[in-house]
Amino acid sequence: MYSHLEDYIYELYTKIGITKPSDMDMYLIAKLLGVVISYRKRPFRTEKEIVIDKGTIRSEWMMFGHEICHYLRHVGIQLAMNKLFIDLQEYQADYFSYHFCVPTFMLDKLEINCAEDIIKHFDVDYEFALRRLEMYENKQYTRSVSF
């Protein structure tokens, strides 16, 4: 059983034809979602634009995962928000990025034994892959336990 977020990401990706790790190209996904990727010193999003900081392909992919959450799931301008609400949105975007960049439905089809396996298939950095593996293993454990 998937969480609401995992279902959302599964439906989002399958709707635009992204079904396996080799399909996951930031520019293609942006195009299919109707957004433009731009580069500036500070990441943010506008109505139809995701702005990220220039970096490695991996860092840009992970940043895109974070910013696309704001685009898809958040409303409002953070400059006018209470700090606690900003913190909540940032936490949600961070969590979203793990599932967006390394979707559970794709992990389920692969043999994943370590963080390096995630890096090989999804091109994220080691710390990100390690945290995502931990999330996935916890989910696997929860699936196997009957309450």
UniProtKB/TrEMBL annotation:
Residues 60-134 form the IrrE N-terminal-like domain. Pfam families: Peptidase_M78 (PF06114). This is IrrE N-terminal-like domain-containing protein.
